[in-house]
Amino acid sequence: MTARRLGISTVAVHGAATRRPDWAPVAPPIFQSSTFTNPVGSEEEILYSRYGTNPTQVALAKKYALLEGTEDALFVASGSGATALAHLAILRPGDHLLSSEWIYGGTRQLFDQEFARLGIEVSYVRPDRVREWRKSMRKTTRAIFIETPTNPLLRVIDVRPVAALARDSGLALLVDATFASPVNCRPAELGADVVITSATKYLNGHSDVIAGAVAGSTPFIEEVRRLMRMWGQSIDPHAAWLVDRGLRTLAVRMERHNANGLAVARWAEKQRWITKVHYPGLDSHPDHEIATELLSGYGGMVGLELRGGPEAAMRLLSRLNLIIHAPSLAGVESLVSEPRLTSHRELSPAERERLGIPDGFLRLSCGIEDAEDIIGDLEQAGK
Ligand SMILES: Cc1ncc(COP(=O)(O)O)c(C=O)c1O
């Protein structure tokens, strides 16, 4: 008899459904220890927190694999660490990586600066044109990388045709779905081999931890674990415990983020002083249809362009009270930032313009406050 697969909210709270022994703590214990006693002469796996074998690290990884629907998973010290290690587990000097060009600026820097130094070539394609992917493949191409929904334009990529192409060509498909969280999208179900997430964002959700995670097959995660040990990238047990605590409310937080994102986007679309609203839940968004098909919710991220451009944006930012002007996203409190000065600052203004991120573009991360209060703050600051 196969067990019924648990719902995502249940998994986020409990992980696997196992009956607990009497007198067990309801909240999971934290093993805040770098090392553990070793039986004399034992050749069994060593418990050591840099190896990722600390029970707090192990329990969190198991829960995340269940959430993503993959064989295994691993947490590391940051989302950027997760992106780097996931790729390095697959790519060797001389290999070529085909990447979407709509990606987080930090990932772009990693590819252009560090991967180039390692002899790994990266080229970029517009991810919404499947023919472009095929045309850009080389003999040395080993993997494809996609981010969805994208930072900061919230474009939603149809992962399925790219997954089919990767499968037919023997390539690995890696997907960073940080902006969705496994509640809104599970890329492995759409054909991705590897899921990457910045756990700093929705998984933890409280703006108090830096962490990242990789999910995929057991042999792949083994290779990431090997690199993690060697490059010293493990997650601290306390950070792992906090991410686990965040996971327990992930599903209800996402419900509110989704509702607030939609409410703010619908309101923003009616304001004359806001010239463009980027939100996949709006009919006006270029990927609205595919987003409706692939996502369980449109998320809490909203892109705004104001009449009056960068000056109007600066004016708005300096008048906000509730919404905090800070980089990062996906916490319980609403945050706003300008990609030109934060996530995409390494790109030239011309390159940002070409990608559709003009100066003055605002990236708003709707928290879980009352939607009317987020809107009220925008209204008083934008008037
Ligand atoms: C889509 C995406 N992936 C990865 C990262 C990197 O995450 P971290 O800051 O945890 O290294 C970010 C950070 O903003 C991001 O937006």
Explain what you see.
With 383 residues, the protein is of the alpha/beta class. The protein has helices at 8-14, 55-68, 79-88, 105-117, 130-136, 159-169, 181-184, 218-231, 237-247, 250-269, 288-294, 309-319, 349-355, 371-382; strands at 72-76, 96-100, 121-125, 141-147, 172-176, 194-198, 212-216, 274-278, 301-306, 324-325, 335-337, 362-365. The chain is globular. Helix 2 packs parallel to helix 9, helix 10 (250-269) packs parallel to helix 14 (371-382) and helix 12 packs across helix 14 (371-382). The strands form two sheets. A seven-stranded mixed beta sheet has the order 1-7-6-5-4-2-3, with helices on both faces. It is built from 14 helices and twelve strands. Strand 5, helix 7 and strand 6 form a beta-alpha-beta unit. Bound molecules: pyridoxal-5'-phosphate. Residues 78-80, 83, 104, 106, 147, 151, 176, 178-179, 198, 200, 210, 212, 343 line the site of pyridoxal-5'-phosphate.
